[in-house]
Write a structure and sequence with these properties.
Blueprint (H helix, E strand, L loop, with lengths): L1 H13 L1 H4 L3 E9 L16 E4 L6 H10 L4 E7 L19 H14 L5 E6 L7 H13 L3 E4 L8 H8 L3 E3 L2 E2 L6 H16 L3 E6 L3 H10 L8 E2 L10 H12 L5
Parallel strand pairs: 1-2, 1-8, 1-9, 2-3, 3-4, 4-5, 5-6, 7-8
Length: 256
């Protein structure tokens, strides 16, 4: 019996499309503050970029990424429990009422009209708060954008509020570079591949650190052994309106 289990597991690994779809999607966060963030454009076009609003290089990098048919997200700063001096412009905070939060988020969305979805930058405090997350998801629903919960806290209610409002939602499974060393990044990436081979679609988040981008350039040029690298949008169930918007983005109709 053990022999047949081993044989079947090996067969599934070799012909994964028959047994299950082993997929990873990668998002590179924090794009826009530095000109060096452009190195992320050297990664395969399946790798999404998440742009910080109102930053010096977000527009330029976003337009280049769009020309590559690359998925783009809005990386909205949200209040955390600490280190809020790292939030940057366009942040959503716990002190905002509904009107202020929705207006701030609306301005960020309009500033980067080529985005297809959004994920949170920081946000350990705000994503655990029910009302601000409901307001956030209502705004995303108006623009037919999806949400990826970066899960910076185990107490997040973002995914639940997205589901309640009807916003397509995914969650982050692996942070690639909490430790900025090639060895640690490689370990996290191989862990993500192992999760994917167990039969799930895995969302990975990294950052535009030289260590991360150098590692991914090298690793993604090699076979991933029965795992497919896919665009983040391929994992999102989209409405007809969202699909039409994505088609318009790809054709260049919404780049201005």
């Amino acid at each position: 019996m053990d022999y047949f289990k081993t044989f079947w597991a090996a067969l599934c690994l070799a012909f994964s499309s028959v047994c299950f779809s082993a997929e990873i999607a990668i998002i590179i966060d924090d794009i826009g503050n530095s000109e060096s963030d452009q190195q992320a454009l050297n990664l395969p076009p399946e790798v999404a970029l998440s742009l910080l609003p109102f930053t010096p290089h977000a527009q330029q990098i976003g337009h280049h990424a769009l020309q590559q048919q690359r998925d783009l997200l809005l990386h909205v700063p949200m209040e955390a429990h600490y280190k809020n001096h790292y939030l940057g412009p366009g942040a959503l905070t716990a002190q905002m009422d509904e009107q202020a939060l929705k207006q701030q988020l609306q301005q960020a969305i309009v500033s980067l009209p080529f985005i297809q979805g959004m994920n949170n930058h920081m946000g350990s405090k705000l994503t655990s708060m029910a009302e601000p997350m409901r307001w956030t998801m209502e705004t995303l629903a108006q623009h037919e954008l999806f949400f990826v919960d970066s899960r910076t806290t185990k107490h997040t209610v973002a995914e639940a509020k997205a589901n309640a409002v009807g916003v397509p939602v995914l969650r982050r499974h692996v942070f690639l570079d909490n430790i900025r060393s090639s060895a640690a990044i490689a370990k996290q990436f191989e862990f993500a591949l192992k999760l994917a081979r167990s039969g799930r679609s895995v969302v990975i988040i990294g950052h535009p650190y030289p260590e991360t981008l150098d590692y991914l350039e090298q690793r993604l040029s090699q076979p991933l052994a029965a795992v497919n690298l896919v665009p983040i949008t391929s994992l999102v169930p989209m409405s007809e309106g969202a699909l039409a918007r994505q088609k318009a983005l790809k054709s260049g109709a919404l780049t201005q």
